[in-house]
Write a structure and sequence with these properties.
Elements: E1 3-4, E2 8-9, H1 18-24, E3 27-32, E4 36-37, E5 42-50, E6 65-71, E7 74-78, E8 81-83, E9 88-94, E10 99-115, E11 118-120, E12 130-146, E13 161-165, E14 177-184, E15 187-188, E16 192-197, E17 206-207, E18 209-212, E19 218-222, E20 227-237, E21 246-257
Parallel strand pairs: 4-12, 12-21
Antiparallel strand pairs: 1-18, 2-17, 3-5, 5-9, 6-7, 6-10, 8-9, 10-11, 10-12, 13-14, 14-15, 14-19, 16-18, 16-20, 20-21
């Protein structure tokens, strides 16, 4: 694994592709008002779409987003409402039992096509002057705890791209390392991995930590600050179809430190 404990700026696209970045590089994040709650307490949360972490910059389409609360081996769907003022989708859950639960989110794949006349939210088969086309799909897991944390953090949900803590995030303090495993379609994935925390930077797509996973899918993340952390990975499938040229899948893990 290669690791770099420094500011990492991601210039996803340059020059004429800046607009493409604004379309595709938003991270899909479920952010609760806090990461711990008393049993039975109502815990509000928001679904963000952000370049600057963690401030939402656009509202995800309500029909394209689903969120569930995974607790005690059960997943319960959670309803969402649009908040146009904060540009979020808002919801709330009640943590009935003690332990670590997961807010699981999925933003269905959306196809964007770059043409000679600009970007269009449509498959390439419906466009003229096609330059490139991509389907962008996103997943999120956010850990929340009531009472004493348990091994709920390690539950594998079966998301197409998934980040799974190997060590308990609730036990990690600033200055220590968190080990995570990345799975793609259930198998370990060797890939780049990025991490940051809420308030680290006001610059778009800027991370506090960079690493890579090995063939075993494992990586170590140095936790350098308390607060709400986000780990992010991406998998790009360059397998053209009649609708798009590539399928880009992103996954995020959110957890609290301190």
């Amino acid at each position: 694994m290669k690791r770099c404990n420094r500011l990492v700026f991601l210039a996803v696209f340059m020059g004429c592709f800046v607009f493409a970045a604004s379309l595709s590089a938003h991270e899909f994040i479920i952010k609760p008002v806090k990461n711990t709650a008393a049993m039975g307490e109502t815990l509000p949360f928001s679904v963000l779409s952000a370049h600057v972490f963690m401030v939402s910059e656009e509202v995800e389409p309500l029909a394209s987003v689903s969120v569930g609360l995974v607790s005690n081996d059960r997943e319960t769907p959670v309803s969402l409402t649009e908040n146009a003022t904060l540009m979020t989708l808002d919801g709330a859950v009640s943590l009935a039992g003690e332990g670590t639960a997961i807010l699981s989110g999925h933003r269905k794949g959306v196809i964007w096509t770059q043409t000679t006349s600009g970007w269009k939210q449509a498959p390439k088969s419906a466009c003229k002057g096609v330059i490139e086309s991509g389907k962008y799909e996103k997943f999120c897991k956010t850990l929340v705890t009531s009472g004493h944390p348990d091994k709920g953090y390690a539950k594998v949900l079966g998301q197409a791209l998934e980040i799974i803590p190997v060590t308990d995030p609730a036990s990690v303090a600033p200055g220590e390392e968190l080990i995570v495993k990345v799975l793609y379609k259930g198998k370990p994935l060797a890939t780049e991995i990025l991490a940051t925390y809420d308030g680290f930077s006001g610059d778009p797509n800027t991370y506090a930590y960079y690493s890579t996973t090995g063939a075993d899918g494992l990586a170590r993340i140095k936790v350098t600050h308390d607060g709400t952390w986000m780990i992010r990975v991406e998998k790009k499938e360059e397998v053209p179809t009649s609708e798009y040229d590539k399928h880009v899948i992103r996954a995020v893990l959110v957890f609290g430190v301190g």
